[in-house]
Amino acid sequence: MIIHRKKIVFSIALALGLNHNPGYGQAEGDTALIDLNGSNGITINGVTVGDGSGGAVSDAGDFNGDGFDDVIIGASSADPGGNSSAGSSYVVFGSENGLPNPLNLEDLNGLNGIVINGANFFDYSGVSVSAAGDVNGDGNDDVIIGADDAESNGNSGAGISYVVFGSVDPLPNPLNLYTINGINGFSIHGSESNDRSGHSVRPAGDVNGDGLDDIIVGAFRADPNSNNQAGSSYVVFGSDSPFPNPFFSTPSMAAMVLLSMGLLLETTQVNQSAPLVMSMVMALMTSSLEDPEPIPMGTIQLAEVMCCLAQSPPQLIPST
Ligand SMILES: [Ca+2]
Ligand SMILES: [Ca+2]
Ligand SMILES: [Ca+2]
Description:
Elements: H1 2-15, E1 44-45, E2 56-59, E3 71-75, E4 88-92, E5 103-104, E6 113-117, E7 125-133, E8 142-147, E9 160-164, E10 175-176, E11 185-189, E12 197-205, E13 214-219, E14 232-236, H2 251-260, H3 274-286, H4 302-310
Parallel strand pairs: 1-5, 6-10
Antiparallel strand pairs: 2-3, 3-4, 4-6, 7-8, 8-9, 9-11, 12-13, 13-14
Helix pairs in contact: 2-3
This protein binds calcium ion (CA) (3 copies).
């Protein structure tokens, strides 16, 4: 801890031009960030004033499948397409040929990396970024991007997290998150206003041991069981069956799926479009039928719904 503080102090001193010589706060052999020269590391610079690139950083696995690890950088205050703070995230591809130093994010061209832009203004996409593992089991590493201020299903600040599937084939550059369609990735929508789901996103390993990587999404301002801002976290299991998109967010959305299968009679809970219902039903129908587990009606929780959609569908019990 003390060492870290020294490094921080030293970095500040450098930034202020107070000290350019090793000695103050820098032990022999330390490397100041300003000394990165391309052979010992590189600097990656943001595009525009106020973008805030580097507010979140992570490894990105091997997103483009070329055998070299990639990184992902969030700039949640970026204004892609003039949309204030829609946010941008940048996947920078690793390379055996060396990377420019500094690497300017505006130079990403689809070959050396891609830009992933937020869907709507003030979504703050890229507030969290991470490798996701291989969520869909196609052999390519995927990434996950949080947009914790995004509106979901009319709920402001519910938050949306986007899993973008990696690919060896070139992806559009820029890739806009509003084009995520269930084939190139899927979106995980928060439940209630101001849940801020996606404020944190991380890979979860393989929690359920099915060989597919899982992810975890944090909603630190969720109010489970009427406990104000007790917070909720959601583990979403990977699946090699098609994901519904958007991924259900609320119990009422789950109810729609069940209703559409003739298993729930509470029509007041249906308020979504037919295509969305159909996509969810298709996901259910194409999922594995192994190890069904009954889920009682009326007690549908988000995590259980995620389970039933992402993994094997449960044996549904009709409402009485
Ligand atoms: Ca790569
Ligand atoms: Ca994948
Ligand atoms: Ca798994």
